[in-house]
Write a structure and sequence with these properties.
By secondary structure, this protein is α+β, with helices and mostly antiparallel strands. The chain is built from 21 helices and 14 strands.
């Protein structure tokens, strides 16, 4: 894909910025930032999004972000005063405002096959990702707790095997690499794994630390890493926490990495698996344009592989999103598609947690939350670290007025996936649940936090407006009212209660009054 604007062209396949055909030198991180702004030129990109995409979610100061924006502008002969191409929206983020034309690169064909990667059985484009979990290296005291270096990866193999989309190399093969520093070429060629998860256990006195690292064996890059520390007396809790945390992290970070690899390939070469992961990038941006793009990617993936269960579930997800947030002109069709696509996923793979999640949520659209609960329970049972399943389970409790049960599940979901694209929904659902329980101060805190997250749509900010009004936080209530109407000028009380059919008559009446006082129309 090539994006052209003025004299500049941005070639994503070659990773190159050019001006009038001449390459422009630009540092890699600034190039990544520029690509992200151009690809999302139809909307505001927040600072939090840039930190997540460019710096992989690490703590970054505003000064570092400003410096990189200056670097990107300099490469485009732009500056902070003119802002011809990259515009700052003060206090909110950035937008690319240039007029862009897209060119699709034709697939390059060769008379002879390219040289294979050294060694052989690396994952072919479009194949299901595979992962090798190595025994952890033990540092420090080897007595008493030394067995944890084998126990944690063994439990990770078992837990990751529940992820239906990920192939996990058996323990009997991966544990042959005991005690060795991971050699990515060897992992790729001898085990055929596209990812390697390795780690270290450090025990010094009463202190215990667990470090995990996910690497892409195809290029040796570190995709994700984390570290937990505590006391040896807490070893069993730490073991449980690290297994749950890593399992959820694999669901998020492998998908993002696969999407990034797919993005760099010419569109004609995209196969079903790559199309699926490209669709995920758009699906989790939670706006009508990206949702439609995601739906198209998933439809093309299914056309290429009609038995691709997860792609059918993803089509259900985009149909649900269109119906829930009222994107389309025919909500009834979206409701039917959300159920139909999820059913097809479960016909192909009844044990897929994502399929059970999407099928369970499809009942919401018909105001039958209880019937969907069985499938949400199954999604969590199949994958105990599936944070989206926990969120959906909590939402059903929220609608039924079981605030305390909802908060407990939401706390688990947020703890397992603190950088999740669904974080806005988890936080706002927690705030709404706390409002059920009468804790308005904490309710407003979590609703404000959720409404500020990337992806938060008008049905999130309208909750924040209502609960802040009930709590007499009138300035904040007006702020979220204005935000709601910016996102959806026709937002109404009827739309609110279609999305959130609260069963508690007292709360329903109080919210209705608050929304009416804030000026929202009945329908």
């Amino acid at each position: 894909m090539i994006y052209c604007f003025g004299p500049f062209s941005l070639n994503l396949t070659l990773g190159q910025l050019s001006r009038d055909g001449e390459e422009v030198a630009v540092e890699p991180r600034a190039f990544t930032l520029l690509c992200y702004l151009v690809e999302n030129r139809d909307r505001l990109v927040t600072k939090d999004e840039l930190v997540e995409h460019v710096w992989a979610g690490r703590f970054i100061t505003d000064t570092a972000i400003s410096t990189l924006i200056k670097t990107a502008r300099r490469a485009l002969d732009d500056d902070g005063k003119a802002q011809r191409l990259i515009r700052t929206v003060h206090g909110r983020g950035f937008r690319f405002v240039g007029t862009v034309e897209m060119t699709v690169l034709a697939e390059v064909r060769r008379d002879t096959a390219p040289d294979p990667a050294p060694g052989g059985p690396a994952q072919e484009p479009g194949e299901q990702p595979s992962i090798a979990v190595l025994p952890f290296r033990l540092i420090g005291q080897t007595q008493t707790y030394g067995a944890i270096a084998d126990a944690v990866p063994s439990e990770l193999i078992s837990s990751l095997s529940r992820l239906r989309w990920l192939k996990v190399v058996a323990r009997g093969s991966t544990f042959r690499f005991r005690g060795e520093m991971p050699d990515m070429d060897a992992i790729r060629t001898k085990l055929g794994a596209s990812y390697c998860l390795s780690g270290e256990v450090e025990i010094f006195g009463s202190d215990l630390a667990l470090t995990v690292e996910l690497a892409d064996t195809r290029d040796g890059r570190i995709v994700w890493a984390d570290r937990q520390s505590g006391k040896v007396d807490d070893v069993h809790q730490m073991r449980t926490d690290i297994v749950n945390h890593v399992t959820m992290a694999m669901e998020l970070h492998i998908s993002l990495n696969e999407a990034e690899r797919a993005r760099l390939r010419a569109p004609q070469t995209l196969d079903a698996w790559s199309l699926y992961h490209l669709g995920l990038r758009h699906m989790y941006r939670f706006n009508a344009t990206d949702n439609a793009i995601a739906a198209d990617h998933f439809a093309r993936a299914v056309a290429l592989d009609p038995n691709f269960a997860r792609a059918h579930a993803a089509r259900s997800f985009t149909s649900f999103q269109a119906a829930f947030v009222n994107y389309g002109s025919d909500r009834d069709v979206d409701i039917d598609n959300a159920r139909r696509f999820a059913e097809r996923c479960l016909e192909l793979d009844p044990m897929d947690p994502f399929g059970n999640f999407t099928y369970g949520r499809s009942y919401w659209l018909r105001n039958d939350h209880d019937s969907g609960q069985t499938f949400l329970d199954k999604a969590i049972g199949l994958s105990p670290s599936f944070s989206h399943g926990m969120y959906a389970h909590a939402f059903t409790n929220l609608i039924a007025g079981r605030g305390a049960e909802a908060v407990a599940k939401l706390d688990d979901a947020i703890r397992l996936s603190p950088l999740d694209p669904f974080l806005y929904a988890m936080q706002s659902a927690k705030g709404f649940s706390l409002a059920h329980m009468g804790d308005l101060d904490q309710a407003c805190h979590w609703l404000d936090a959720g409404s500020r997250q990337p992806g938060a749509h008008y049905l999130v900010s309208i909750i924040a407006a209502a609960i802040n009004r009930i709590a007499d936080n009138n300035d904040q209530a007006r702020h979220w009212t204005e935000r709601t109407l910016q996102l959806r000028p026709d937002a109404s009380i009827e739309q609110f209660f279609v999305a959130y059919p609260l069963r508690d008559p007292a709360l329903r009446s109080t919210v209705h009054t608050a929304l009416r006082d804030l000026g929202f129309a009945e329908r």
